[in-house]
Amino acid sequence: MSDKTTTESDVNFIRALAELLRANDLNELEVKREYGDNDRLNVRVSRGAVYVAPPPVAAAPQAAAGPALPAASAPAAAASSSGGDPASHPGAVTSPMVGTVYLQGEPGSAPFVSVGQSVKVGDTLLIIEAMKTMNQIPASHAGVVKRILVEDGAPVEYGAPLMIIE
């Protein structure tokens, strides 16, 4: 295959990835292709969003709050029991980045927080691994952890609700 054909097919491939990003409302997409022993293509397509930390949210009592869900509950169950999107809850802690969530510092250790635990501003709630960098996510406000909406090792998107602190 000539270099010109390879370049054109690579450009078409990257355009297709950008369209996939747009069509599925994704923030980032990374693909690695192996063509042969010394021939590969690594592509990362991103919307180029700038990280802005969400402002601290004042905890407000929620009328008609349902019972607290166990930590391993699915996000869909949490959303249906609270009557809405957990991201819109006043005590929601949302993901500041795309990555993989880890609820403890290392495998086999105790989680950073658990349901019912009191936290203060700055306490580490969990870690999000993004681009092989471990990012500690601190509590933006003090309160009691009411729900953990993610599972250990789960992928998260920017703005996805991680937990509820009231």
TrEMBL record:
Keyword Protease: no
Low complexity compositional bias, start-end: 70-92
GO molecular function annotation: acetyl-CoA carboxylase activity
GO cellular component term, pick one: acetyl-CoA carboxylase complex
SUPFAM superfamilies hit by this protein: Single hybrid motif (SSF51230)
CDD domains reported for this sequence: biotinyl_domain (cd06850)
Region (Disordered): 70-95
GO biological process entries: fatty acid biosynthetic process
The entry's keywords: Biotin, Fatty acid biosynthesis, Fatty acid metabolism, Lipid biosynthesis, Lipid metabolism
Domain Lipoyl-binding: 90-166
Pathway(s) annotated for this protein in UniProt: Lipid metabolism; fatty acid biosynthesis
Pfam family, one: Biotin_lipoyl
Annotated NCBIfam families: BCCP
Annotated function: This protein is a component of the acetyl coenzyme A carboxylase complex; first, biotin carboxylase catalyzes the carboxylation of the carrier protein and then the transcarboxylase transfers the carboxyl group to form malonyl-CoA.
Protein name per its UniProtKB record: Biotin carboxyl carrier protein of acetyl-CoA carboxylase
